[in-house]
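Re: Re: token formats

Sure, here are both.
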Amino acid sequence: MSEPYAVLVVTHQAVPDLPACFAAIAALRPAPAELVVVDCASQDGSAEAARRAWPEGISGEVVPLSDNRGFAGGMNVAIARSRAAWVLLLNADARPDADYVARLLARAGSHPRLRVGGVTGRLLRPGGPPRRLDACGMRLTAAWRHLDRGSGEVDRAQLARPERVFGATGAASLFRRRALADVALGGEVFDRRFHSFREDAELCFRLRERGWEVLYEPDARCEHRRAVLPERRTALPAAVNFHSLKNRYLLRLYHQSLGNLLWTLPFTLARDLAALSWVLARERTSLPAYAWLWRHRAELLARRRAIQGRRTVPRRQVEQWFLRRGIPL
């Protein structure tokens, strides 16, 4: 019998997405044990829309927040409010197939010798033809970019085998509660400082540093209408770009070793100089990100010490992921 799972959704101005998202949740088999929706101070009535569209027969709650804590802060609340052994983190713009969670749970259960902390599926963008991939697990580059494998590629049945991957997107991935509790700091699974963007990659670093595996199951399919893409940066809200820039440095500050810093320096330096040039020339609203990092340097370094002090695996075991896209199962 499948282990019980909860579906967790964080909303902000999400009214147009909720009916279809909740219809997909209602169709999941086995059905979720609970559904928790945390609304981050929406002004469009998202909390009320969630209550109206609530899937029949599924217990849970809508938790309205008075402030916008972003995906990281909102998901911390949702995780704390749920109780199931597994949690499916789901964006409001994601539409999992009815067997999505069943396939993810089956994949996790197929490898008893692995310490499986998370499982993700084959995310596809809506529209087409041609149909395009959105995310098939996460990989790392030498420039410290965390990329969704296959993102934007035409779906030609590539990435069709189950694999171990570095990490999983927060848009539609299943995590073991015990793993999340193991890597939590100060009672929080996600670092609230990230607010939005890159918080899923940072979580996956902590999972790997504590010896948890993340798996990819290609037969588990989910549609995801991704809004935040590099090519759309100029059209994104200033706050999103601010957090994106700030968080790239938080990620490295928390998890980069001296050895990794030295061999990736040519790649990260080129990327950092390009980002600074872009901000100075085209995106000055993101300049405060640099000041924020300097102003909070003491607490950020303290968090790094806390994270690194809890590491249970050798650095090379995590840093191998900068050299590979996936490891076949």
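Second one below.
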Amino acid sequence: MRKRFQDAFAAAWRGEAEVDRFNSLVLRAGLDWQQAALLRAYAKYLRQARTPYSQDYIEDAVLAHTDVIAALVRLFEVRFDPKLADEGRQAQVDTLVAEVTRMIDEVTSLDADRILRSYLTLINATLRTNYFVRDEEVGEAKPYLSFKLEPKAIPDLPQPRPAFEIFVYSPRIEGVHLRFGPVAR
């Protein structure tokens, strides 16, 4: 825990991580600062997609359900970790989706249920990410996160929906690139 906390503090100090309550997940859910940044990035995307919930409200829901959040992070990592063998990956994903869904079904707050299901929907709608890409020279993570999303799989997005959205997030900038076809022009 000490190393995770020190790494999170150093990342915030260097400006690689925002200073907000998502950082509490390092101690409360046993996540590292990059996993907390992943959840923060999805929350920022939800705000771009016009969720009715503020970041503070999303943080409240996340911090109140750290077991669900930790399971969501596991699901994301199983889906996209290039070090995992493709054999059996889908079975692991299906098992985790069922586990997360069961956990969310037990949530008593309707707003928390909606927020947690939004996370599940976004993780399932993510097609690609740079989350696991490391700088070849230093071995550090990229200073930004990007997700290629399939908007058709996200029911709460407004119409018209593009074919793909690429969401880029860092503490300094965030934005969405909309693609209405398979090739960007």
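The first strand starts at residue 126 and ends at 129. The beta strands are 126-129, 145-149, 164-169, 174-179.
- S.
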